[in-house]
Specification:
Blueprint (H helix, E strand, L loop, with lengths): L2 H12 L6 H5 L14 H22 L2
């Protein structure tokens, strides 16, 4: 009989389950953000990224 294994199982059975309890109780203070209009910063970023990608591809293929 493996008493070390039995002791662990006894401890695990008696232990309170805390695996996700802190996440369920936590109020992270998340307040929904109301955004008005278009996200201009993201639009400009993606336009620049696409433009840079097209420029790189044009010069890579030598067209």
């Amino acid at each position: 009989m493996n008493t070390e294994r039995d002791n662990f199982h006894d401890w695990a059975r008696d232990k309170e389950d805390t695996s996700f309890s802190a996440l369920q109780r936590a109020n992270f203070g998340l307040v929904p953000v109301r955004r008005r209009g278009l996200p201009w910063g993201r639009i400009v970023f993606w336009l620049l990224a696409i433009g840079a990608g097209l420029y790189a591809l044009k010069h890579y293929f030598g067209a």
